[in-house]
Amino acid sequence: MISASEYAQLEALKEEHLKQSIEEGIADLQAGKVSDGKAVIDKLRKRVAG
After folding, report:
1. What is the pTM of this model?
2. Half-sphere CA count of 10, side-chain side, radius 13 A
3. Alpha helix (H) residue ranges in 1-50
4. 15 CB contacts (<8 Å, ≥6 apart)?
5. Where are the domains of the chain?
6. Contact 2, 10 (CB under 8 A)
7. Please, what sign has the CA dihedral across residues 36, 38, 43, 47?
8. How does pLDDT run across 6-45, given as a tens digit for each residue?
């Protein structure tokens, strides 16, 4: 069990991590680092099927 203060700190860290991940994703989009969703799913299905 953690205190309310520790919980608030943990939530703030999680929020900061989320914001950073979103910023990285936006930067990837702007740099053209994107993949077609259908192509990714097809590739994953082939990989899982062996």
Report:
1. 0.68
2. 7
3. 4-30, 37-49
4. none
5. 4-49
6. yes
7. positive
8. 999 999 999 999 999 999 999 999 999 999 999 999 999 9
Q: How far is CA 29 from the centre of its chain?
A: 13
The CA distance from 28 to 24, in Å, is 6
Q: What whole-number distance in Å separates Cα of residue 47 and Cα of residue 40?
A: 11
- What's the full length of the chain, in residues? 50
Q: How far apart are CA 34 and CA 26, in angstroms?
A: 10
Cα gap 48→28, rounded to integer Å:
26
